């Protein structure tokens, strides 16, 4: 008998790899934070002597969701900016609020709130993009959550850095600091092509190439952004510009890609660029819908993200999944993306985009035990013919019973194990009152 830290026996295990299967009555053995084996429960009980045997008789065990794009530090603005277009939302609401309130404490509390929102809805890894990236990294590390922390790069000066050069310096420092960290990695986050000069984009690309750091960037969220310089000239479209600058590579994670024409798609595919689909944020800001089936038909890796809580307004990947699946059905009825494929989009494809697919994104021996358990024993998810279909089209976040990151139980019985929820809610309420102008000017 092989000794392991714990064994999870579930009614179904959806490993994502191999694709398209739900294994009945299987168990996953975990030791020292990593997956040791996946086997039929009867066999696993004979092979392993677990320190703890966790039985989940009506549950699906699957890899934790990878939220491939968010702005965790913005979470205190949830519901505070409700303009119906991206331009007005950003210039009239978000930027003034951020100028007034953003500081390290705001980012720390917003990120902690985001982490609680994400963990309790089954997400085990998030890709972030926010000023004070070092604070977001600390918050993730303290919570024990996996994160790819995007270090923003902007030409315009901010409260956090005076120049793109200073942003890059901070990015390289963060990269060094977390080089050997098992949970947190640093990635570069050039904000968007229209906000950056050619020179800055090339500097970012050189740093990314040298250190093999992924770059995450908003691309073509609106029609104007798709052809920012000369709308009439197809050669001057944004994605053509990125290609000229050598940005289109497997290190680039293009977020949104809502407004893409056939030539854009060809360029993205040729470069091996990953795309993050953020359907709820795109819908809420009236930007349109990324043509996911067309991207997939070109062989482009599409991952899923919530974007920030200020434009979503939650960080719930189950809700995002259902929105994505329904939109694809409604807008592209000829293209079929199965429920199992959608689960891959929300897990392994995110890991692929972030350069983490060797270590997370599926239930396979040797990978980190980043797992989530969903209880299907509820009226809204019975009966079960295929658990993947129930997860994508019926289940909700309150059915997430357990979440492990690197084998550590961060959610048990639907409740976070390492977060002081009472204190966190109190801080969120105080921030809300201050931001709404009802609170005192003291520290939140
Ligand atoms: Zn975003």
Description:
The chain is of the alpha/beta class. The protein has 2 domains: 2-63 and 361-413, Urease, subunit C, domain 1 (Roll), CATH 2.30.40.10; 65-353, TIM Barrel (Alpha-Beta Barrel), CATH 3.20.20.140. The chain has helices spanning 41-47, 86-101, 104-119, 133-143, 164-177, 198-211, 223-226, 238-244, 262-271, 279-284, 292-297, 317-331, 339-346, 348-353, 387-393, 421-435, and strands spanning 2-13, 23-31, 34-40, 48-63, 65-70, 123-129, 146-153, 184-190, 215-219, 252-256, 274-277, 302-304, 371-375, 400-405, 408-412, 415-416. It has an 8-stranded mixed sheet, covered by helices on one side. The structure holds zinc ion. Zinc ion is lined by residues 69, 71, 218, 255, 307-308.
What's the structural blueprint in terms of helices and strands?
Layout: E1 2-13, E2 23-31, E3 34-40, H1 41-47, E4 48-63, E5 65-70, H2 86-101, H3 104-119, E6 123-129, H4 133-143, E7 146-153, H5 164-177, E8 184-190, H6 198-211, E9 215-219, H7 223-226, H8 238-244, E10 252-256, H9 262-271, E11 274-277, H10 279-284, H11 292-297, E12 302-304, H12 317-331, H13 339-346, H14 348-353, E13 371-375, H15 387-393, E14 400-405, E15 408-412, E16 415-416, H16 421-435
Parallel strand pairs: 1-4, 5-6, 6-7, 7-8, 9-10, 10-11, 11-12
Antiparallel strand pairs: 1-2, 2-3, 4-13, 13-14, 14-15, 15-16
Helix pairs in contact: 3-4, 3-16, 12-13, 13-15
